[in-house]
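Before the break, one more example. Copy the sequence into your notebook; we will annotate it together after we see the structure.
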Amino acid sequence: MLKAVRIAILLFILFMVATGTWLTQLRSTDWNNSLWVKIYPINGDGSEASEDYIDGLRVETFAGIEEFVAREVRRYGRSLERPVRVELGKPIAEQPPAIDDSTSILDVMLWSLRMRWWMSGVTDDQDRIDPDVRIFVRYHSPKTTLALENSVGIQKGMFGVVNGYASRRLVGRNNVVIAHEFLHTLGATDKYDPTNAMPLAPHGLAEPDRTPLYPQVKAEIMGGRIPIAHDDALVPQNLGYAVIGPLTAREIRLAK
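Here is what the structure looks like once it is written out:
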């Protein structure tokens, strides 16, 4: 009898957690109120260059993200004036749990659980009220010769980990990656080939009906790059060269 009660209590807790997660995800894409996105900088490589750059960060550094989402929301006929409100959090001294590129679904789930535990420990002191979305940006010196780890955005838990460069010149590119991972937290899917990072037609193209098809002049944000040929693409310099395509808009309930 006692065992049955324990199981019932556990199932009830799991049900409440699942219901809470579902309601949060539903509210995050109703586009009736502003979403509060908080960005936490992390010195990803321990360099002095990254530390100095983080010290100079201001919330205005990320203004392009707010402008991009507001522009695209208006383009899809929504009247919400400020759909995203970005706030800059205090620097985080600890590194987030690492995740391998070639992991199973189970490994990703376990990593997600570790991330949630880690987040609660490193943000509690500065977050009396939880933001809707948390994005942790790990900055690296632009002089590094190592390829940066992949960035990731998770819908369940609504958080992202972004790897970027500690360079004013690359602010726009960093914001493109942050916006991409932010949209993952709302349910958007990747629209590029993971083997070569080339945007996939038609949904990974900003103008899939363009004639001739290439070169494209903008990137579909979840396609990630501007295709200039069927086998070549450029990283957009800033979010002025990116759009939210129709399929992505449907995935985040911005369009029907």
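The first strand starts at residue 35 and ends at 43. The first helix runs from residue 2 to 28. Try to locate both features in your own notes.
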